[in-house]
Amino acid sequence: MTTPYHPPRKYSVRIEGHRTSISLEPIFWDLLRAAAARSNIAVNTLVAAIDAERIRSETPPGLAGAIRIWLVTHELVSRHD
């Protein structure tokens, strides 16, 4: 088993036709890919949905932080359903 402790890496995504990069630890990137696969959508589509949700919040975090928060809350909700 490899260690989950790894510094963030840059990943390229496309949101509404615009390319951007996000810095995420590989474990969060793997969780993001798995969540997208479970929903049968592309990672870019999921990232765009998370981005839109974070922008509507009262105090929007950065995109990478929003992805981490979404993954943690999504996984907690999924486990309780």
Automatic annotation (TrEMBL):
Give GO MF terms, alphabetically: transferase activity
Q: Which residues cross the membrane?
A: none
InterPro entries, per database record? RHH_dom, RHH_sf
Domain of life, per lineage: Bacteria
What keywords were assigned to this record? Transferase
Gene3D superfamilies reported for this sequence: protein bp1543 (1.10.3990.20)
What Pfam families does the entry give? RHH_4
Q: Where is the Ribbon-helix-helix domain?
A: 9-74
Which protein, by its recorded name, is this? Aryl-sulfate sulfotransferase
